[in-house]
Specification:
single chain, alpha/beta, five-stranded parallel β-sheet, 9 helices, 48% helix
Length: 225
């Protein structure tokens, strides 16, 4: 099978990670979660007490970014993020880190720093890469582009289940997801949007298996297996 790349974009809690992992396993290809890379930088910034707000208020500099040693390790189809020799994967999925990552990803200095890293990863072997600007910016020539979305309400319920939070947190989580969507879609640098040649999948009323089967069929038809 020739080398190919799959770009999966979409808003927060749309199921990009779960579905991308499953598709990577079905095809036996590399899985790359770019959001985890931004989360890792955000964690480092928070630990360093740096302001992450976009534009001229940010304290993120190239000099500081160059001090970070970020590695990706794959263990049993799980992407582990290593920051300065420490596995920080288990610290990256809090709402605080989610919002910080949105601020971080709006910074052009950070996006430029990570762009080559992401492209080099995808160039090394067949890959599925998920994020918010994969099909539009990172891998504009990806073999297959998919924009995966769902209603804010269904994404809220999925995120509560993912984090093991009670339904009483529903309105707070919905507000957080709507805020994240607004930030991601309106940021100046590489805003979240569907690539012109991406296939839209709205998973609001779909089961997990239906989503994965749909993506699998799209890829099979595209690469001609």
């Amino acid at each position: 099978m020739h080398k190919f790349t799959i770009a999966i974009d979409g808003p927060a809690a749309a199921g990009k990670t779960t579905n991308s992992k499953a598709i990577a396993e079905r095809f036996g290809i590399q899985y790359i979660d770019t959001g985890a890379i931004y989360r890792t930088i955000s964690l480092a910034a928070i630990r360093a007490g740096k302001i992450l707000l976009p534009a001229d208020q940010s304290e993120i500099t190239q000099e500081w970014l160059d001090t970070l040693k970020i590695e990706i390790q794959n263990q049993d189809n799980e992407q582990r993020m290593i920051l300065n020799e420490e596995d920080v994967s288990d610290f990256l999925r809090t709402e605080r880190i989610s919002m910080a990552a949105s601020d971080c990803s709006a910074l052009s200095i950070v996006r430029k720093h990570l762009l080559k890293i992401q492209r080099d990863l995808a160039e090394s072997k067949s890959s599925i890469m998920e994020g918010r600007d994969i099909g539009t910016v990172v891998l504009p020539d990806a073999t297959v582009k998919i924009f995966l979305t769902a209603s804010p309400e269904s994404r809220t319920i999925r995120r509560l289940l993912q984090l093991g939070l009670p339904h009483s947190e529903y309105h707070s989580m919905l507000s957080s997801i709507n805020k994240r969507d607004k930030q991601d879609m309106n940021r100046k640098e590489a805003p979240l949007r569907k690539a012109k040649d991406a296939i839209l999948i709205d998973s609001t009323d779909m089961t997990l298996q239906e989503v994965q089967d749909t993506i699998f069929s799209i890829v099979i038809n595209k690469i001609g297996i």
